[in-house]
Design a protein that fits this description.
By secondary structure, the chain is α+β, with helices and mostly antiparallel strands. The protein folds into five domains: about 190 residues, Hypothetical protein af1432 (Orthogonal Bundle), CATH 1.10.3210.10; about 140 residues, 2-Layer Sandwich (Beta Polymerase, domain 2); about 70 residues, no CATH class; about 70 residues, no CATH class; about 80 residues, ACT domain (Alpha-Beta Plaits). The protein is about 45% helix and about 15% strand.
């Protein structure tokens, strides 16, 4: 390998490029790495040369090749970014800085280091996408020379390559790189399987080559007879592709019939379909093996027609049909969409090509947990996809198992945030409906409808999960600020201190600075989330350890739909009835100030109250206020003899007491008994007892009771 070879490769696709800095970069890199050797024993500067050569296969501009030659000097030598800027300009220096690995951070585990390194790479990609291409080239050459490392390190790097870098190359459309990365990884992850595949493929290579040449000749003559131009050549399936097919179908190597395929390149999209028709006229197609990626491109914009036919002698033959332009994109991937201008920044040519990268950067901003971010990217890289149509005919790609909510967020964040329903192929569908490829989806929105935590159980895509969590966290912080401020003001009033004077002064913030809190907003949030106790915050302000308390004023809760509840001392704050005990008017109740969700109202006999005693200052007095027309949902269970008419009789008894049934379920047992479960709407505890008494008198009823859910809510 020499610099001359790299220059020759660049001249093939950029004959007029200025290569004056290329030799300088090579010399600079060689001198910086002087005396360094790789574990294999070869001089270190061979590695940057190989990386640069790989980048020429992607037809990157000289500035990127220069960055490839210099990509390790910031990490492994004493060279600084300022020196690189002075010698090669800001663009090359920034690229090198972006590629430089993060080695100075103290991580808790290897997994965390891997995840954080990947996250840092995404941040660098946001500044210039070529960082990722250089990183992939670096990884490819490292995989080619992995044999020099200890076995444990080989397996770790190979696993990382299989999980992250090969899927990334695939997602970016660089098919040849993805295949080589996978095959290199398989060699170290499953060495016995890899060697067996190599031997078996080589053993039958001559016969398969002869067979494919015969098929190619027949196709070539038929195309010529129909006046269609096309380049035709055979291609060998890579080892991981063979292994995956064996595993997926549970078949031995001998039953993988399409070890070699045929690729046809032509000059127009119309000819692609004409060639498809000719091939199907020569040999019968296998319907389940036909895919039209021209009509519906892959997410990396890969386009091609794939079809498998039963060829001569009954052997399966796979054909790939595409235009020259489509083939260029399939080989070079996303790099084919850059316009190179020396002395200026790289610009985007095709906006759609970069949609996934922008999404990746968006996730990096929305998902705060590093491992969660890594898992989200892995999920998106590995997941099977479905293709869904918008009402306008655009195609959205989603993970298999996605729902209308995922689709809504794929359209736009605001569409997702206000999604209230969906029409699938013109018919109403629930938000939990699993979408299938080819369906047309219309999202119904309402400005008053907002995401909730239950949506996280319905969505599949990382984007939807990240957006929902971001919305919930933002909303909960806003609510926690309100709750925290009111809790602090309540404690100040109890201590006979003026809230306005205290909060406008410096003393209260000075007391919490050791906790890393420097603003009132952070203080309110900390109290609202339950990280800090309001009583502890004001303790340093008090002259004596004990102070006289004052009964707080009761303020009416205005939202009657929440149960017309009075909350002492917190004013107009969100209130909700806890689902663990579902108290109704007449039950003894108590409130608990939650973290970001207002006041949760519990029955005083609720077993969960025991879990709240560790945080006494968040327990608050609440009371019922009678209001006409308000009903409350209560679950009841009725044990009966399993006999005809009993369900109707119990339902009648409930309705006669003016209680509406919102849900009914019957469960029979082998001992001729049945349990009837109802959710009913009642006014208060007295009304509930009246209904229960009436049900007990129904013939066949053995026992009736109110049901409370278990578990901490």
């Amino acid at each position: 390998m020499s610099l001359d070879e790299i220059e020759r490769c660049i001249r093939l696709y950029a004959p007029n490029a200025d290569l004056s800095l290329l030799s300088k970069a090579y010399t600079f890199s060689s001198e910086a790495h002087f005396g360094q050797v790789r574990i294999s024993g070869e001089p270190y500067h061979h590695h940057p040369l190989e990386v640069a050569l790989i980048l020429t296969q992607l037809k990157l501009p000289p500035s990127s090749i220069i960055a490839g030659l210099l990509h390790d000097v910031l990490e492994d030598t004493t060279v600084t970014k300022e020196q690189l800027c002075a010698e090669f300009g800001e663009e090359a220096a920034t690229l090198v800085e972006g590629v430089t690995k993060i080695g100075q951070i103290a991580f808790k585990s290897l997994e965390e280091k891997q995840a954080e390194n990947f996250r840092k790479m995404v941040v660098s990609v946001a500044q210039d996408f070529r960082v990722l291409l250089i990183k992939l080239a670096d990884r490819l050459h490292n995989m080619r020379t992995l044999h020099a490392l200890p076995e444990e390190k080989q397996k770790r790097i190979a696993q990382e390559t299989m999980e992250i870098y090969a899927p990334l190359a695939n997602r970016l459309g660089i098919g040849w790189m993805k295949s080589e990365l996978e095959d290199c990884a398989l060699r170290y992850l499953k060495p016995d399987i890899y060697q067996t595949l190599v031997k078996k493929v080589e053993a039958g290579l001559s016969a398969r080559t002869t067979y494919i040449e015969t098929v190619i000749e027949e196709v070539r003559s038929t195309l010529a007879a129909n006046g269609i131009n096309g380049k035709i050549y055979g291609r060998t399936k890579h080892f991981v592709g063979i292994y995956q097919k064996m595993m997926r179908r549970g078949i031995p190597f001998e039953e993988v019939y399409d070890l070699m395929g045929i690729r046809i390149l032509t000059d127009s999209r119309m000819n692609c379909y004409a060639i498809l028709g000719i091939i199907h006229s020569l040999w019968p197609p296998i319907p389940s093996r036909f895919k039209d990626y021209i009509a519906i491109p892959k997410p990396n914009l890969y386009q091609s027609i794939h079809t498998t036919v039963v060829g001569p002698e009954g052997q399966h033959v796979e054909f790939q049909i595409r235009t020259e332009e489509m083939h260029k994109l399939a080989e070079e991937g996303i790099a084919a969409h850059w316009v190179y201008k020396e002395g200026g920044p790289v610009r985007e040519k095709d906006e759609k090509t970069f949609a996934w990268l922008r999404q990746l950067v968006e996730w990096e901003q929305d998902i705060t947990d590093t491992r969660q971010f890594m898992d989200s990217v892995k999920s998106d890289l590995f997941g099977d996809m479905v293709y869904i149509y918008t009402p306008q005919g655009d195609v959205k790609e989603l993970l298999r198992g996605s729902t209308p909510i995922d689709f809504a967020y794929a359209v736009h964040t605001e569409v997702g945030n206000h999604c209230v329903g969906a029409k699938v192929n013109g018919k109403m569908a629930p938000l939990g409906y699993i979408l299938n490829s080819g369906e047309r989806v219309e999202i119904l929105t309402s400005p008053n409808h907002l995401p909730n935590r239950n949506w996280l159980k319905l969505v599949k895509t990382p984007k939807a999960k990240a957006k929902i969590k971001h919305f919930i966290l933002t909303t909960e912080r806003t609510k926690s600020l309100e709750i925290g401020r009111k809790l602090l003001e309540r404690e100040l009033k109890k201590a006979q201190l003026n809230p306005k004077e205290v909060l406008n002064g410096d003393q209260i913030l000075n007391g919490v600075k050791p906790l890393g809190i420097h603003t009132l907003e952070d203080l309110f949030a900390g109290i609202g989330y339950g990280k800090i106790r309001a009583a502890s915050v004001i303790a340093p302000l008090l002259p004596e350890p004990h102070f006289k308390t004052e009964a707080p004023k009761e303020i009416k809760k205005n939202d009657s739909e929440k149960g017309a509840i009075k909350v002492k001392g917190l004013g107009d704050i969100m209130v909700h009835i806890s689902s663990c005990c579902t108290p109704v008017p007449g039950d003894e109740i108590i409130g608990f100030v939650t973290r970001g969700r207002g006041v949760s109202v519990h029955s005083r006999t609720c077993p969960n109250i025991d879990h709240f005693t560790y945080n006494q200052d968040r327990l608050i007095e609440v009371s019922w206020e009678r209001a006409a027309g308000i009903t409350h949902c209560v679950d009841i269970s009725v044990l009966t003899v399993d006999q005809p008419g009993v369900l109707g009789a119990v339902s009648t008894a409930i309705s006669q007491d003016a209680a509406n049934i919102s849900r009914a379920e019957i469960v029979t047992t082998q001992d001729q008994k049945a349990t009837l479960k109802f959710s009913i709407q009642i006014r208060d505890a007295t009304h509930l007892q009246q209904v229960l008494n009436h049900i007990e008198k129904v013939e066949g009823v053995l026992r009736v009771r109110r049901v409370r859910k278990e578990g901490v809510k």
